[in-house]
Write a structure and sequence with these properties.
two-stranded antiparallel sheet, 24% strand, Hypothetical Protein Ychn, Chain: A, alpha/beta, five-stranded parallel beta sheet, 3 helices, 21% helix
Length: 136
């Protein structure tokens, strides 16, 4: 990656449904990635619910967009950081999250996990490394 490419971190703090924030964030990420931005995502607070497996939106009458996260690897979005403390505060663990992978072209196309559960301290360090942070 060339030095002039800025690092973008999209921070997701809202639950997946009930507001437009989560879906809008995902759409902006896909657009940015399509234009070759160095994109990663962070999930904090209620944003961790966006990645939970088994979402069923039939009762609330909205489209379930959670499977779209599995397409991020096709856009070279391979870093999804989930704050461990946010999971724990909501009674969740890494096992409650969807399996999201990407194919690593540098490792003979091996499938690797995109989700990385990190501590609050590690999340702060990741944020400090970014050129642009957009919060949803």
């Amino acid at each position: 990656m060339s030095e002039d490419v800025k690092k973008f971190l999209y921070v997701n703090r809202k639950a997946p449904y009930g507001t437009i924030y989560a879906l809008e964030a995902l759409e902006v990420v896909l657009i940015g990635a399509a234009f070759d931005q160095d994109v990663s995502l962070a999930f904090l607070d209620d944003g961790v619910f966006q990645l939970t497996s088994g979402q069923d939106t039939a009762a609330i009458g909205v489209k379930n967009f959670s499977p779209t996260f599995r397409a991020l690897g096709d856009y070279e979005v391979t870093r999804l950081y989930v704050e461990r403390e946010s999971l724990e505060e909501r009674g969740l663990s890494a096992e409650d999250l969807q399996e999201i992978t990407y194919e690593d072209e540098d490792d003979d196309w091996a499938e690797k996990p995109s989700i990385r559960v990190v501590s609050r301290e590690e999340m702060a360090a990741i944020m400090a490394e970014q050129d642009v942070i957009l919060s949803f």
